[in-house]
Write a structure and sequence with these properties.
Elements: H1 9-16, H2 29-40, H3 44-57, H4 61-85, H5 92-99, H6 102-137, E1 154-155, E2 161-162, H7 168-183, H8 185-211, H9 234-245, H10 265-294, H11 306-311, H12 318-351, H13 370-386, H14 389-417, H15 432-447, H16 450-474, H17 476-480
Antiparallel strand pairs: 1-2
Helix pairs in contact: 2-8, 2-10, 2-12, 3-9, 3-10, 4-9, 4-10, 4-14, 4-15, 5-6, 5-14, 6-7, 6-12, 6-13, 6-14, 6-16, 7-12, 7-13, 8-10, 8-12, 12-13, 14-15, 14-16
Length: about 475
């Protein structure tokens, strides 16, 4: 059998219906939008905005958010078309299997570990640092040995840097979220909805309170003149800033991993994907406008907490604590959606025979891939506890963008090979929109540097060893075709 043999769409749909490997359909459009917002709004909003304003765009970082949103929208529309045609767990992995063949599907499935599992571990460590900081504000101090790994330095609230033994708070949140995911998708979605309400409320409160204290002089000039170097202010600065804050949008694709648990996927998936993007873009733009209005953008340079600096220009000191709570809530929902997405991708790969059966075993009561969640709880917890996250942080971004590129390409291939298939949602202006999506995402990947490219290649090489050593010989498609 060819390495690029595709899995017929009719077979994909038939295998998803009935039997013991069926996930429970219980998510409506509101839950899907909340999943998207839960994955998108993290600490990136609270940190990247200040960096991009100070170093690249000034107050025009508002325009950078709009530009980055357009880039995400290209990929989002492609994801929406696929998720209505193929409403199955697995996201980009499943779409690639139907369009570009088994080898490409394996590559993208393995690549998504970088976005979901590694991403969840990375976020859990950041979650830990903010919880430690908040507890310090409340007069509670945790032992330094228990809040940091031996290789990952942690800056304490008093300014000192420590190397610990194990990062227990990070392990705690990963285990807690994993157990919640084992209990059920509806319960997980309800908790996520509550957390999303908390962090969105914090963002809205910051906007509402801060609006009255905006100083128009801080927005003048709105687009600072270019310094003579590409990317340092002017229009080129807006473009460069869009690349910096693009990663604040990463996560909306995780909505598509829940397609097999949506009640009406053909109708609700585009609402969940595009709706969450629109809501987050509006919040991002207004948030950036208020923040750069409260404090002059030059003051954000080198500041690790630009939002706290902006808050100092209001008489409400309690906002600082509220923002920390919003960041912690943001991290919590990101971890939840990332772990959800990872287990659903491996669920689909296991169901196709490319991974051991344990990843697609469904709990008889909860109807969730509980063993997969359990295994990832252990894997991600170990990573959270001991790994040097600073080395692999950007791997999450390059893995995500690679998935975006393949999904955009898949839309063009599917339009050529199977033009008559029903498409409840159609990506407009094909092939223009997918091509633009590929170009924008490839540009972002290029900007991450060759160091991260080399790590991506090493990770994919490990995946190839597993594929040719195990997955190819166990593939259900290969066996069905007599391979």
């Amino acid at each position: 059998m060819s390495l690029f043999a595709t899995k017929p769409l009719s077979r994909i749909m038939a295998e998803s219906e009935g039997g013991k490997h069926t996930l429970k359909r219980s998510l409506g459009p509101g839950s899907l939008i909340a999943l998207g917002i839960g994955a998108i709004i993290g600490a990136g909003l609270f940190s990247l905005t200040g960096i991009a304003a100070a170093e690249n765009a000034g107050p025009a970082v508002v325009l950078s958010f709009l530009l980055a949103a357009v880039g995400c929208a290209f990929a989002g529309m492609c994801y929406s078309e696929f998720s209505t045609m193929i409403p199955i767990a697995g996201s980009a992995y499943t779409y690639s299997y139907a369009t570009m063949g088994e080898l490409v599907a394996w590559i993208i499935g393995w690549d998504l570990v970088l976005e979901y599992a590694v991403g969840a571990a990375t976020v859990s460590i950041s979650w830990s640092s903010y919880v430690v900081s908040l507890l310090h504000d409340w007069g509670l101090a945790l032992p330094a040995q228990l809040i940091a790994s031996p290789w990952q330095p942690v800056r304490m609230p008093d300014g000192s840097t420590v190397y610990g033994i194990i990062n227990l708070p990070a392990v705690f949140i990963v285990c807690l979220i994993s157990l919640l995911l084992m209990i059920g998708i509806k319960e997980s979605a309800n908790v996520n909805a509550v957390v999303v309400v908390i962090k969105v409320t914090v963002v809205i409160v910051f906007i509402a309170v801060g609006w009255a204290f905006i100083k128009p002089a801080n927005h003048t000039p709105f687009i600072p003149p270019n310094t003579g170097t590409f990317g340092e202010f002017g229009w080129s600065g807006i473009v460069r800033a869009a690349g910096v804050i693009f990663f604040a949008y990463i996560g909306f694709d995780a909505v598509s991993t829940a397609a097999q648990e949506a009640r009406k996927p053909q109708k609700d998936m585009p609402i969940g994907i595009i709706g969450s993007l629109i809501i987050c873009t509006i919040l991002y733009v207004v948030f950036a406008y208020v923040m750069t209005g409260l404090e002059h953008y030059t003051k954000f340079r080198g500041n690790a907490a630009p939002v706290a600096l902006a808050i100092m220009n209001t008489p409400f000191a309690w906002l600082k604590t509220a923002v920390k709570l919003g960041i912690i809530a943001g991290f919590t929902s990101v971890i939840l959606v990332m772990l959800l997405g990872q287990s659903r991708v491996f669920f689909s790969m296991s169901r196709d025979g490319l991974l051991p059966r344990i990843f697609s075993d469904i709990h008889p009561k909860f109807r969730t891939p509980w063993l997969s969640n359990l295994l990832f709880m252990v894997f991600v917890s170990l990573f959270s506890a001991f790994a040097p996250i600073s080395v692999v942080g950007h791997m999450t971004s390059i893995g995500t963008l690679f998935a975006f590129v393949l999904v955009c390409a898949g839309i063009m291939i599917m339009r050529k090979t199977q033009p008559d298939l029903p498409r409840p949602f159609k990506t407009p202006l094909v092939p223009l929109v997918p091509i633009l999506g590929i170009l924008v995402c490839s540009l972002m990947m290029y900007g991450l540097g060759w160091e991260n490219w080399s790590r991506l290649f090493v990770w994919l090489f490990i995946g190839m060893v597993i594929y040719f050593g195990y997955s190819r010989s166990h593939s259900h498609l290969r066996k069905a075709n007599g391979g």
